[in-house]
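Sequence in, structure out. Go.
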Amino acid sequence: MTLASKITIARILLVPVFAVLAVAYGRSVDAGNPDDSLRWWALAVFVTASATDGVDGWIARRFNQRSKFGAFIDPIADKSLLLTGVVTLSLVDWGSIGWRLPIWFPALVVLRDGVILGGILILYSGHRKVTIAPHWSGKVCTVAQMFALGWVMLRVTWFPPFWPCVIAGVFTVWSTVAYVRQGIGILRTQPAA
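Output:
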């Protein structure tokens, strides 16, 4: 197993650590005695896990450690972290009552990922060649979703989390449409193998 893959697995192992810390902080908020050390630890774990995404990719490219396993496990690690963050931060308050992601946001994120995964399965079942490569709109979507998560975790109070979620929601829908169009294009142009 390559160093890059080990770093990716470490990212997966950090996901439940983040979830436990985030829920513990939310419970301390609910109890009326917020333990800010839990919030900062959760944020530190989330940022560390997010940073390993760039590190493992750089190592894989720089030291020629690309592998089929790495290509398979990396998106799983990314989605695990993002979905855990989105779902967790929609279920627990991270400040005053309602300081969380609105419930429609994780539903939209999960729906998007379900549509993309379903599309890939349709292409595979139709014996089409599927190259899993991120579209630029998907990258913007991920950054916008991370921004919304950061807004909640850092408790930026200029305006409520609803507005960063609206922006991320627009990019989430946009990237979903882009991937669906890409899948339809593959169905139309590639003959079944």
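Check: The radius of gyration is 18 Å. The chain has two domains: 1-74, 101-193.
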